[in-house]
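Write out this protein's structure.
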Amino acid sequence: MKKLALPLLLLLILQKQYLTLAKSDILRIQRDLDTDKESPRTDKTLYRYFCEALLVFKHIQCPQAVEALTDQEWINRKELGDRVVVGVRGDRASSVRIALTKEEEAFLELYFVKIRPENLHPQKATNSFFVSSDGNTVHCVSRDMNRLHELYKMAPITSQCVRRAVETAAKKLPAEQKGALLHYMGLSAGVFQLQDVSDAALLLESLASRSADETSLDTRGAAGGPRRDFLAFVDRFPVTLEGVPPSKKKRMESGFPEDRIFYDKWRATQYAQREKHLLSYYELRKPSAAKVARLIAQEGWTVNCPRPEDIVRLWKPAPNKVLEIDDFVILSVSEQTWTGLAIKDFGAPEGLGVVATRHFAKDDILCDYHGKVVTAVEGRANVESQHNEPGYVYFFKADGKELCIDAQTSTCSCHPHTKTFGRLINHSRKNPNLKPFHCKINVHGQDQHVILFKANRDISVGSQLKYDYGVRRHSFKAEAMALKRLDE
């Protein structure tokens, strides 16, 4: 049997043991996060390390590319068949695209929705995807990987070592495949389509798989006992809502230990799945125990299922956290450093819009409608010069005057390098989640009229932001119907 070269052997050990060792703990943390069970900070940090490790060691990305990933890039990921493609472009990394599996996307999305929002600090402006527990951008993914190695008492293997291993293995590939693989890792430039990125990710997986078949890599642990791999256990015995845990005989025949450790973990995982499934039926209103009991009966579950009373106890309404705003809002308006927002292209007919990349509670201030404040007469003249299209203008009344915020250009004179969010928020008459209101704030020593957007309900991660423009459908002048309230 052909022996595997040492560099690629290290890669296989890493993928098969290193990530697998962490994954059993990650499944436990994932269960706690899914059920809104309070998790210690150490668990949430470990979960972040694991997400970073997926990109570094599974998708062979350099740490700088992982550090450069932003919330907007995550929001704008594209689904392509059974893959999800994420683009990364930053000052410290060349442009790369990563094709995640749906399972990997779910891991990162759970971090994005459940952990990252808790780490964000209103006084620390960051749009980075990975944020440390103190609210700062993660600046050293390599150090995080070293800590992950220490946690699982494994010999440190650097990302550079793994990347070189793949480069060595890629030399034996045809030129086209080699070029696609090097481009995927950010080691070469060129224009590649989304399908090319997905194909390169599959090639990377198949390269490791073929190499695994050629090696006689020992699957026994350091102590000489059977390899204790819960991930392999659930691969052999998938956990499903309707599944039955494997018997002792089946476990023995498949080469797993006689003890019940994996068996009990399997049942705990299914139990958590069933909890999540039951709670998903009651997202808006708290159920009664009788309703939950009827649902359990409909599912046909008689063993290893939650009690109706436990589901009622676990149910929680949307969070209602209100942030202190004063100085923060003034700074955000003057510097345009609003965080927790990203611009997304929704395609025709909506076009560009804005989505939340963190949780916002009711009455939180999200951003302002930023632009040059002019008189309403000037604003109407600007509208007419745009062939009677309303464009990016906001008419309002304040201090007995009719005024207008002109945001026709994507950037303003005071922030020439910043694309502001307020002008891109789309319209909804029936289901807006924002409400505009007028205030005066002191910016750089001068009082300025400002239109702020306040959440009129809790807003979850990934939600598109919308407000009622308040304009008559056939009016080109963009005259607001309810702006008199702004004088109050």
